[in-house]
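Input record (Table S2, row 331):
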Amino acid sequence: MTKFIQPNFPVTRLRRLRRSSAIRDMFRETSVNTADFIYPLFIVEGEEIKKEISSMPGQFQLSIDNVIRECGELESLGINSVLLFGIPLEKDEVGSKAYAEDGIIQRATREIKKNFPEMLVVTDVCLCEYTSHGHCGVVEDGYVNNDETLKLLAREAVSHAKSGADIIAPSDMMDGRIGAIRQALDEAGFAETPIMAYSAKFSSAFYGPFREAAESAPQFGDRKTYQMDFGNSDEAMREIALDIQEGADIVMVKPALSYLDLIRRCKDTFNMPLAAYNVSGEYSMVKAAAANGWLDGEKVMMEILTSIKRAGADVIITYFAKDAARILNKK
Ligand code: PBG
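Output record (PBG complex):
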């Protein structure tokens, strides 16, 4: 027999620790828990509304009364954190309802905190759901004006904090927004309110279903002048570094699946609390394949969620939170 070139064989055999599920479970390096999840909610005006989002089976637009019911279900599943998106009745050029005291998010936040004081309420700070043109800022001559937008984002963040939001999550990708929001929160007496920054947020076709859910598709052009180009990794590290300097408490990579390399690079480079957003398109494509019988949806879901944690994420924003919790709670 020719001499085997792996010098440790037969002394080393990695299959020894794979022989039973008990031993595999014992030495699994990465596990997901319900405490890792943040569950997104789409909140609409009105009462008794529960409208399924056609491109996101199992996800709904909910009126506030149903949001409260949903929080009860989430709590019983062990999911203690929600990310709120608001869909206002009226939109205008400057997204006024984003920072109105009686805005949908402001009222929903107060109601959730009243009924579920332990529920961690994270609010998405952006203008695209509230502007008539669907862009994430103030548009002048067809271009989003960065510095004018900062003032409105800061107002929106403070109004969320006043309503009781536990974490402020800016998702607009304007330059300097974390610093502007941090300063505004501090001046308004919210120095202890953390910011979860959508730091490396890419201009991605994976957001398609979300734009149906949040009714936030841009009415002209796209978001490429503010969201990142998906070919860029070094630039993502610069975006994250700036957000940290400006005061971000938690940074985020978004989307997750096509950007696992950046999740790992971010964790290794910055060692910061890190969130990953397992976005709408990542959810919908698994659901569609499962509905066709092409994939085992539950197994693929658990493999995806585990891969996002293995890459380095501490928390995962995911529409799968309830499905995954049901599986995890059975174990
Ligand atoms: C708002 C926002 C978007 C998402 C989260 N916040 C859409 C976008 O930027 O176009 C996408 C989330 C998802 O696809 O699940 N700016």
